[in-house]
């Protein structure tokens, strides 16, 4: 592995964690704003949290590709089921564990 790829492999988990922290912070602020009746601002922050979740997903895919040379592995990623209203663990996986949620369920309405 090149020196550049080694540096990238070291920094990717940090980036994933950092993005996840900000996504969670956006959701916390969105909840507070909604409690104060600021629904439009709350919705904007929820959209930003979703974008951060998408960025984390891309970083996770990058890490998997860097480590294995392939993303062919069927990843049970948050983005597949965390959008559900009942999800309480949205993008809360830590960077030290596999990017799989123990509560993951595949949505049969989504096509592979």
Number of helices: 3
Helix content: 55-70%
Largest sheet: none
N-end to C-end Cα span: 32 Å
Structural class: mainly alpha
Unreliable stretches: none
Compute the CA-based radius of gyration: 16 Å
Mean pLDDT: 76
**Helix-strand pattern, N to C?**
HHH
Strand content: under 5%
Number of strands: 0
Based on Cα principal axes, name the global outline.
elongated
Description:
Helix 1 runs antiparallel to helix 2. This protein has a domain at 3-74. The protein has helices at 3-35, 39-68, 78-81. With 112 residues, the chain is mainly alpha-helical. Helix content is 60%, strand content 0%.
List the keywords:
mainly alpha, elongated, 3 helices, 112 residues
Summarize the structure.
It contains 3 helices and no strands.
Question: How are the SSEs placed, and which strands pair?
Answer:
Layout: H1 3-35, H2 39-68, H3 78-81
Helix pairs in contact: 1-2
């Amino acid at each position: 592995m090149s020196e550049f790829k080694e540096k990238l492999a070291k920094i990717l988990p940090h980036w994933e964690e950092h993005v996840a922290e900000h996504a969670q912070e956006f959701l916390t602020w969105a909840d507070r704003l909604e409690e104060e009746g600021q629904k439009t601002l709350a919705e904007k922050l929820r959209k930003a949290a979703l974008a951060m979740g998408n960025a984390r997903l891309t970083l996770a895919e990058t890490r998997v590709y860097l480590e294995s040379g392939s993303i062919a592995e069927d990843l049970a990623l948050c983005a597949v089921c965390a959008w559900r209203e009942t999800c309480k663990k949205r993008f809360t996986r830590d960077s030290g564990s596999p990017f799989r949620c123990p509560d993951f369920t595949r949505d049969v309405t989504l096509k592979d």
